[in-house]
């Protein structure tokens, strides 16, 4: 008998909220302060950043362009710029509330496993008044290794008290899909036209919007 799905785990950036352009702008503004033209970073490098923790992204950029900065100060300033933009501009992805209601009505446990910081996650959940939907919330601050490492999804499964075969993960990025599959979960990829093109082929199912969640037949 196949395991019955008992829980759904949401990613945050570009799955629940349309944040890619805000992330890019925050990083570019920070780099500009340090005299760096962000356009010098190749598209292929930027493509892999989708879904990664900001700390990991910044470390990669610093190494790539050989920038001499104090990392903690650099990281804090980037977060300050980003959160300021989030307050003014962040919007939910189509179908977010409908999908949450769909899973809640079916008595699924619902979790959030995001590469974002705890402060950012709380800001999003409070702004869109959806915190009550989530039984478990895990941020990038809770894990030693960010996506594509499966640590964040393994931790989330443990906190939910479910087996990998009992959970479905909603993702939009290559690194997130790799993380979810590495943890042994069924993965639904939700394509986002606003981010660099992602290879979603390793997901178990690909849909174009959270509005299509009710059309997916789970294992």
Would you write up a description of this structure?
- With 219 residues, this protein is of the alpha/beta class.
- It folds into 2 domains: 7-17 and 92-215, Rossmann fold; 20-89, Orthogonal Bundle (DNA polymerase, domain 1), CATH 1.10.150.
- It is built from 8 helices and 6 strands.
- The chain has helices at 20-33, 43-47, 54-65, 71-89, 96-105, 118-127, 151-160, 174-182, and strands at residues 7-10, 109-113, 136-138, 167-171, 186-190, 205-207.
- Helix 8 links the parallel strand 4 and strand 5 (186-190).
Indicate the topology:
Elements lengths: L6 E4 L9 H14 L9 H5 L6 H12 L5 H19 L6 H10 L3 E5 L4 H10 L8 E3 L12 H10 L6 E5 L2 H9 L3 E5 L14 E3 L12
Parallel strand pairs: 1-2, 1-4, 2-3, 4-5, 5-6
Q: Which key features would you list for this structure?
A:
Rossmann fold, DNA polymerase, domain 1, 8 helices, 219 residues, 11% strand, alpha/beta, globular, six-stranded parallel β-sheet, single chain
What can be said about this structure in brief?
By secondary structure, the chain is an alpha/beta fold. The protein has eight helices and six strands; from the N terminus they run βαααααβαβαβαββ.
